[in-house]
Design brief:
The protein has eleven helices and 27 strands. By secondary structure, the protein is α+β, with helices and mostly antiparallel strands. The protein has a five-stranded mixed sheet with strand order 1-5-4-3-2. The protein has a five-stranded mixed sheet with strand order 10-9-18-13-14. The structure holds protoporphyrin IX containing FE, the ligand Nc1nc2c(c(=O)[nH]1)N[C@H]1C(S)=C(S)[C@@H](COP(=O)(O)O)O[C@H]1N2 and molybdenum atom (MO).
Length: about 475
Amino acid sequence: PLPPPQAVHAAAAAAPSYPRYTREEVGRHRSPEQRVWVTHGTDVFDVTDFVELHPGGPDKILLAAGGALEPFWALYAVHGEPHVLELLQQYKVGELGPDEAPPTPSAQDPFAGDPPRHPGLRVNSQKPFNAEPPAELLAESFLTPNELFFTRNHLPVPAVEPGSYRLRVEGPGGRALSLSLDELRSRFPKHEVTATLQCAGNRRAEMSRVRPVKGLPWDIGAIGTARWGGARLRDVLLHAGFPEEREGEWHVCFEGLDADPGGAPYGASIPYGRALSPAADVLLAYEMNGAQLPRDHGFPLRVVVPGVVGARSVKWLSRVAVSPAESPSHWQRNDYKGFSPCVDWDTVDYRTAPAIQELPVQSAVTQPRPGAAVPPGELTVKGYAWSGGGREVVRVDVSLDGGRTWRVARLAGERAPPGRAWAWALWELTVPVTAGSELEIVCKAVDGSYNVQPDSVAPIWNLRGVLSTAWHRVRVSVRD
Ligand code: HEM
Ligand SMILES: Nc1nc2c(c(=O)[nH]1)N[C@H]1C(S)=C(S)[C@@H](COP(=O)(O)O)O[C@H]1N2
Ligand SMILES: [Mo]
């Protein structure tokens, strides 16, 4: 039974009142020197004195410093126990203010309207926002929490009013369709797909070590896996009047609501056959891991093209059109293409290479991290592996001696229907290691077509630093 209203008032009066803070203020407390603050719900905690006592280690707790605990706790279920919340409660110092509304964009700074982000992300560029999660957390859960999922934005995040949002679909014979979010939800069956998205520039930093390349210096985290929910692109195109199959070369072109100062929207395209194929699972997604699509990931609607480079999964989707030519967008025609190591900026002709669509086989070691000191005894090596085009990962080989001898890692994850392995496989291997040794941990994956990764970076170097898929190498020393 509910307590009488007076009792509620009395209880509220008795509760201690806490100072209010903004997320930005909390975000300034990220080290023991500045104090370590975190949030849970709308409560703010100063956990500086708990950092050294944390059963999971001080490093882990510091990954969440300055921001919300929830996305990190989603990776480690022990925190769901009531005693953890009780423990946390004794460190409460404040509450988040009610005025945590997104700031309004200003003429001076086109990025002023961008959403708040978790300060634990590794930022490669603030404006536009490009960031990846701490690498050691990537393989901690099959689905990447939304707040930790890498973000790759080329432009400011558009502010979209969901009630007035319309998707424009250019139908055959000049007839256009305009669909509200409600119509997309109610007229088309909801379809869910677990798919990994990877940026073409993932692991670019390793390529730059061979010779400088142009682009953001991504480490191994420009990849993530989510359960996407939405309407099938196929269903929407059939509804607009397009046929199952078309003779000749056709493309489905997408435009986003984010546009450059010249007014050109972000755009990309995929072949018509992929867009219409029921087995290709291409989505117009409005959900990510059961939540409404976050603003950084395309709210209210994005394309998700499983098995294909992230660049084609257009966010903040505004328009879909069918054309005999690829999208005229810069990002389709003059970027996201692979070249020979002999091609440089003076000689590159973007017309000579096809746009990247399906990605090659990839893998990386997420744990331990390069330069780490690991204790002697049992060492657990963890990582991810994935291949484009729905080709499943059939094996991951791991070496501890730079590639001279190999062992086979244990694969975890969901088995997918043949040819539709859209999600990564997480893998791990536990091996005995002895004090005083220096290890060069290497991993390489094999996909269902027996495609393998190249052993070194130099032969696949390209001026834009895309498709960086060489064996991943991590050096660590074994010490007490
Ligand atoms: C103030 C924030 C946090 C509190 C109060 C807290 C509390 C705890 C407690 C009480 C345990 C032991 C649970 C048990 O065995 O019953 C634990 C374990 C652990 N925590 Fe945290 N934690 C915090 C933040 C984090 C963060 C941010 C991460 C990850 C990034 C993390 C990762 C871990 C791990 C890996 C373990 C060990 C799990 C295991 O042994 O299986 N914790 N934490
Ligand atoms: N409208 C729009 N869509 C976009 C982009 C963008 O900048 N604008 N970036 C693309 C690139 S290059 C990638 S890798 C993915 C990243 O998706 P995420 O930020 O949700 O991880 O979105 C793609 N879709
Ligand atoms: Mo990308």
